[in-house]
Amino acid sequence: GAGVSQSPSNKVTEKGKDVELRCDPISGHTALYWYRQSLGQGLEFLIYFQGNSAPDKSGLPSDRFSAERTGGSVSTLTIQRTQQEDSAVYLCASSSKAGGIVTQYFGPGTRLLVL
Amino acid sequence: SQELEQSPQSLIVQEGKNLTINCTSSKTLYGLYWYKQKYGEGLIFLMMLQKGGEEKSHEKITAKLDEKKQQSSLHITASQPSHAGIYLCGATQGAQKLVFGQGTRLTINP
After folding, report:
1. Is A40 in CB contact (< 8 Å) with chain B?
2. Which residues of chain A lie closer than 8 angstroms to B45, CB-CB?
3. I need a labelling partner for A105 at 20 to 30 A (CA). Which of B53, B91, B98, B99 fits?
């Protein structure tokens, strides 16, 4: 079946602009995660959604970052007033359940470059 | 918080040679994941280990978790160009997220 998909695959934007990144999880997966991968910081957790529960936003680096998940499926990560340090690969993952030991399956990522 | 340290950071081996990548945790591991990353492909799930002493193999890749559940190794036998990429170990932290090591960049020379 189809894996996790993300769009766009690449995004170049100017400092100060807003960007939206999209994630389509694997069909039937109830949990969705966003991570950021940058040269200096490695792979970092950003936010987690599980069903209709309130998301775990503990990894969001600032209030310029927000995410939503509509209808328990597609998720959008929004970065407002982008800064050069936001340049990174943004990865989305999904899993079939929350809690315990579950495998997260990752999408190909969105490469964001802020000029 | 849990930290994962991978070694080596980079590795260059001749095609056909064996190699090992290590992942050491600052805390007991309750779920240890190995992923491989290639440009444009995101992270590809390889294996997950839970029990102390557990060992899993897939094709020419074997992963082990030590008895104390603080160290894991990934061993590749008779390496091939297709094995090239970045290998990442990840561990569950709470129920919601994974923490990752810094990755090991593997290059296979023909």
Report:
1. no
2. 103-106
3. B53
